[in-house]
Amino acid sequence: MKYMVLMYADPAATEAMTAEERAEVFRRHDRLHEDLAGTGELLNGAGLALPRDTTTIRLRRDGTTTEDGPLAGATEQLTAYYVVDCASPERALEIAGRVVDFHVVAVEVRPVHDSFGMEGGRPDGTPARQA
Q: What is the pTM of this model?
């Protein structure tokens, strides 16, 4: 089964991180990438730009509007994601637990019910398992 692992952080805290704190975050994610590439569970993922660089399009009664900024006005904002292909929800939660730290303060794990473009999307080029 495929899962989105959605990571949330406070953008102000992200910008205030020291070089050493940033290096530690990168080291932790590099270790996780290596582990998940080894098990074949990592399909893809990305870090996202800061919310101030986001544009939101909303549907209104009279059409659509374009607004600067993220959809939600929460302190914590979506900062990165992984798509993993795991044998169980418990395994997806185990993976998600590895990204919670001083920087990523919340992680949402959500099953993917439909996907496209992920077959063969693993970093090593092997086909993804079908859910």
A: 0.82
